[in-house]
C-alpha cells in the first residue's frame, strides 16, 4: 500500500466528540446553534455536540429548515423535533418558500432560502455549526473547477465565515465522511434520508453518486487530495485578497460608486477582475461575466473622451465618463420627448445622476431640460 500523502489531522483519539471538542475550544465566542436537517451528518454533529459541556454552556440549540419541497417534509420536521427532545436540545422549525422559477436551479434556490432563514432567526454573533465534512469539500472543489473558478472558488468552503450577522462554523472540513457514518452506527441514531441526495440530475448529487465513486476507484485518496488542494487555493486566495483590497483603496473615488479607470485598466490580470468584483459587491451589485469585463476593457481602450460608454448586465450597469467608471443599478434611458422646466433646484435625471447648480441661487427664468435630439452636440463655455 502506498503511503498516505494527505494524512488526517493527527489526534490520539479521532472520535467525533474529540474532534468537536478540539474545534470548539478554538472557536470564537457566541451562542451555539446547529443547522439540523435530520440527515446522518447533522444528526451525528448535533448528538456529539450535545455530549460536550462546553457546547451546553453556549446554549446549544438546533434549527431545522423545512423547504417544503418533499411531500414528507412535515413528517421530517416532526422527526427532528422528537430527536431533539431526546437530547434535551431546544429546536426551532423554520418553514421557507423556495423560488423554483428563480433561474438559479433548485439547489441554489433552496440554499438561498435556507441561509436567509438562518440569518433572520438567529441572534447576532451566533455560531451556526454546519455538518460539512471533507467529502463535501471535495464535491465543492470539483463543482467550482467545472464552473471555471479561480483560487477563491477552488478554496472551497471556509471553516469560519461571517454571513449577515451570524458566523457559519464548519468544524468538520478535515473529517472524512466515514467518521460520521461510524458514529451514527455506534450510537444507533435514527436519521432522515432525503431522496434528493441521490438524484443524479442535481449537480452535487451527480458528483457524489457517479463521479467521485469512479474517481476513488482509481485514486483512493481523491477526497483527501481535493481537500488538500482547497487549502492551498485558500492560502493563495487570502494572499491575492490582501492585494485586491489595497488596490481598491487607491482606486476608489470619494464617491464609493466611482473607480479610477486608467489605473484599474493598468492592473495586473490577476487583480483587475477581482478588484472590479470587490468594488461592485461593496455596492451590492453583481459582478460581470468574463466576457462582459473584457467588453468594459475594450470600451476603455477605444472610447473617445466625449463619449459615455455603457456596459449593462443583469442587475448592474457601468458607465465611463472622463476617466472614471460609475457603477449603478440598470437605468432606463429617457424617452425622446422627455422634458422638464428647471430653475436650479436639484433635478433627478432619468438616465441617472442629479442636475444642480453649484450656488444656492434660483434662476428667475426657467430653462428647459430635455432629451438630446439626433445630431445635437453641446458646446461648453471655455472648452
Task: Provide structural commentary.
This protein is an alpha/beta fold. It folds into 2 domains: about 15-235, HUPs (Rossmann fold, 3-Layer(aba) Sandwich); about 250-330, Up-down Bundle (Chorismate Mutase Domain, subunit A). The protein is about 45% helix and about 15% strand. The chain contains 13 helices and 14 strands. The chain has helices at about 15-25, 40-50, 55, 75-85, 105-120, 135-145, 150-155, 175-185, 205-220, 220-250, 260-265, 270-280, 290-300; strands spanning about 30-35, 60-65, 90-95, 125-130, 160-165, 165-170, 260, 310-315, 315-320, 325-330, 340, 345-350, 355, 365-370. The chain has a 6-stranded mixed sheet, with helices on both faces. The chain has a 4-stranded antiparallel sheet with strand order 7-10-9-8. Strand 9 (about 315-320) and strand 10 (about 325-330) form a beta hairpin. The chain is elongated. The termini are far apart. The model is unreliable at about 10 (pLDDT under 50).
Number of strands: 14
Tell me which CATH architecture of the largest domain applies here: 3-Layer(aba) Sandwich
- Total number of helices: 13
Distance between the termini: 79 Å
Side by side, the strands of the main sheet go 3-2-1-4-6-5
Which sheet architecture does the biggest sheet show? 6 strands, mixed
Ordered list of secondary-structure elements with their pairings:
Elements lengths: L15 H10 L6 E4 L4 H11 L2 H5 L3 E6 L6 H15 L3 E5 L10 H16 L5 E3 L4 H13 L4 H4 L5 E4 L2 E4 L7 H11 L15 H16 L3 H30 L6 E3 H5 L3 H14 L7 H13 L7 E4 L2 E6 L2 E5 L10 E4 L4 E2 L5 E2 L11 E4 L13
Parallel strand pairs: 1-2, 1-4, 2-3, 4-6
Antiparallel strand pairs: 5-6, 7-10, 8-9, 9-10, 11-14, 12-13
